[in-house]
């Protein structure tokens, strides 16, 4: 009786927010937990006590420190157990859990993941079975309980799929459809398409889901009233997640849920939706630069452009000035404030929050666009090279700082590789730009200092290939740059390029004969589909550098690459060497023989003329025959 009276008084006190966060009230959280867990709800006085305990917890949750205190003092686990056991007041426990996850999602999952998964499993089973309005209420609650990562084969997945399939296959109002799209987006973020079963029914459902998401985006973003668009940001953000995964499924060659005919149909539907995204950005972008939804829209557009630049070409060209302006603003703000990407489109919070590196998401698509004359001209006129050079330097600093988590470093490395590809497109298509724009001189200095820190046999071979080839291609146009005039940085740079170029091939016994054949070095095999073309371009660029840097052949001699290359050619069967590789080797050998008497002598001492004849290196053979 006295405990019940005490709880009633505390419940009254908690109607005052100041008292609800008083230490003496917070200290009673374990007491509230025990009342909810241990009281017999069949007793009328116990039912009243449970109600008072929930009232106190509700009041504490509403205070600034409340969510943290509830998690730290055990209320999270108590509420999970109350709902799973369907104890008295379990509906209030669920509302409190939703509020807790909305306010402190990361802390909740860190503190009690198994208890929250138990709630998710219970809710999922109820969701599948419900055939009335409860189904839509559960759908709204469920998305709060989907963890950041959900392992394939999780107990809840079949029930969630069945429940969502039932909802989305029916004729619905927006208020019924929107929670289902949000839940589907959360599941897709947590486990990709693993929650959708393979086979005909699964592919049909995935196509339906993508179609619904694209229709929602079109209906929302083609609205002329931006205020109405703002009201739908959370559901459109969820649709963006579904669209991004649809792009992945449409481009997946093996193991896709979709048949080829479905992929073709979905690409057309996606194109219409992205037309609406572009339209929205053109209408609202300049007016709403600070709106986080603009970032979300640019991010999803970047995912589309990374795979598809042939459609909407005119619209994309018209949008490029805005995209670059926005990316520059984001980049400068990020450098000042250290902002990072947070996509909480599925979080329980009321407002979606997206902050981050817009240029990272745009780079793959922009790189594709630099291969085409008109988009490339727009990018140059809008200052893309200057922005990209600054961005590359900043990303490199992040890469070598070791302050980022491994997954973040992988993203930075991928971004650096994409930036290298974009620079190469500029160098090849508009070579005069390199000597005209001062930013490329600054970029050359970054490459001179940075390249030697990448080990040629290490895990970053793709990045090394991109930076090596870019540096060599730029060095041809910046031969008068002081940093390239036999400085220690220049020697280190060229030594690293030699190590990379020289290490690609080895002699290996022919498995079907007695001779030796040319083979890729083991460290290069896995990456060769990505770096093979870069190696060939790098060999060509290195050969072009030798007449420009007359001290370079001495570095080659000192590295013994020349001797090793000639020895390699003398050991392997000429028929085992691809013609393009022969051409690459010949280009280097010809320039070494032409620009350096000591190199010419080494070539002759190693049967250079005979090797030239064996490999069909006519230019080398002719060069060696001349005095």
Automatic annotation (TrEMBL):
Report the InterPro entries cross-referenced here: ARM-type_fold (IPR016024), Neurochondrin (IPR008709)
Q: Which domain of life is it from?
A: Eukaryota
Signal peptide range in chain numbering: 1-20
Q: Which UniProt keywords apply?
A: Signal
Pfam families cross-referenced by the UniProt entry: Neurochondrin
Similarity-based family: Belongs to the neurochondrin family.
Q: What is the protein name for this chain?
A: Neurochondrin
């Amino acid at each position: 009786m006295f405990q019940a009276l005490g709880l009633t008084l505390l419940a009254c006190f908690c109607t005052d927010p100041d008292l609800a966060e008083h230490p003496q009230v917070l200290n009673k959280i374990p007491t509230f937990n025990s009342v909810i867990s241990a009281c017999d709800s069949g007793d009328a006085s116990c039912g009243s006590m449970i109600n008072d305990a929930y009232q106190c917890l509700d009041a504490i949750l509403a205070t600034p420190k409340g969510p943290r205190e509830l998690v730290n003092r055990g209320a999270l686990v108590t509420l999970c157990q109350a709902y799973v056991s369907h104890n008295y007041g379990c509906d209030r426990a669920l509302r409190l859990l939703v509020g807790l996850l909305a306010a402190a999602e990361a802390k909740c999952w860190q503190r009690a993941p198994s208890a929250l998964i138990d709630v998710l499993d219970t809710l999922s089973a109820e969701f599948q079975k419900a055939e009335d309005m409860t189904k839509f209420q559960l759908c709204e609650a469920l998305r709060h309980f989907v963890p950041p990562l959900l392992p394939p084969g999780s107990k809840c997945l079949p029930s969630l799929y069945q429940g969502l399939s039932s909802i989305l296959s029916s004729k619905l109002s927006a208020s019924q459809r929107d929670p289902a799209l949000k839940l589907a987006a959360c599941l897709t973020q947590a486990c990709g398409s693993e929650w959708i079963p393979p086979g005909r029914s699964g592919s049909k459902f995935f196509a339906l889901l993508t179609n619904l998401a694209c229709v929602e985006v079109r209906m929302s973003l083609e609205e002329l009233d931006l205020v109405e668009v703002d009201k739908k940001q959370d559901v459109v953000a969820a649709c963006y997640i579904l669209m991004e995964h649809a792009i992945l499924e449409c481009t997946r060659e093996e193991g896709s849920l979709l048949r080829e005919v479905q992929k073709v149909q979905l690409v057309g539907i996606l194109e219409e939706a992205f037309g609406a995204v572009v339209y929205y950005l053109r209408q609202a972008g300049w007016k709403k630069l600070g709106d986080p939804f603009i970032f979300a829209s640019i991010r999803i557009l970047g995912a589309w452009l990374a795979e598809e630049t042939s459609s909407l070409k005119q619209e994309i060209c018209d949008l490029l000035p805005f995209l670059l302006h926005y990316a520059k603003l984001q980049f400068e703000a990020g450098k000042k404030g250290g902002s990072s990407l947070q996509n909480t489109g599925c979080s329980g919070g009321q407002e979606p929050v997206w902050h981050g590196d817009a240029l990272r998401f745009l780079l793959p698509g922009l790189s594709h666009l630099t291969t085409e004359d008109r988009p490339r001209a727009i990018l140059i006129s809008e200052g893309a090279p200057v922005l990209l050079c600054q961005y590359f330097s900043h990303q490199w600093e992040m890469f070598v700082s070791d302050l980022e988590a491994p997954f973040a470093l992988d993203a930075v490395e991928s971004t650096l590789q994409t930036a290298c590809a974009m620079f190469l497109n500029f160098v090849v298509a508009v070579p005069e730009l390199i000597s005209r724009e001062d930013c490329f001189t600054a970029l050359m200095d970054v490459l001179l200092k940075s390249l030697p820190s990448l080990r040629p046999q290490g895990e970053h071979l793709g990045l090394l290939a991109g930076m090596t080839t870019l540096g060599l291609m730029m060095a041809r146009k910046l031969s008068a740059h002081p940093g390239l005039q036999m400085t220690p940085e220049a020697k280190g740079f060229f030594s690293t390029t030699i190590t990379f170029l020289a290490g690609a091939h080895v002699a290996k016994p022919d498995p079907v004969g007695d001779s030796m054949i040319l083979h890729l070095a083991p460290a290069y095999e896995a990456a060769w589909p990505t770096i093979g073309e870069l190696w060939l371009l790098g060999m060509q660029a290195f050969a072009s550098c030798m007449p420009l840097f007359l001290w370079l052949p001495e570095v080659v001699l000192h590295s013994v690459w020349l001797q090793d290359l000639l020895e390699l050619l003398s050991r392997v069967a000429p028929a085992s060497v691809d013609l393009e590789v022969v051409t690459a080797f010949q280009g280097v050998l010809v320039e070494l023989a032409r620009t350096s008497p000591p190199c010419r002598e080494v070539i002759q001492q190693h049967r250079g003329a005979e090797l030239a004849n064996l490999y069909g290196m006519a230019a080398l053979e002719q060069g060696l025959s001349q005095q």
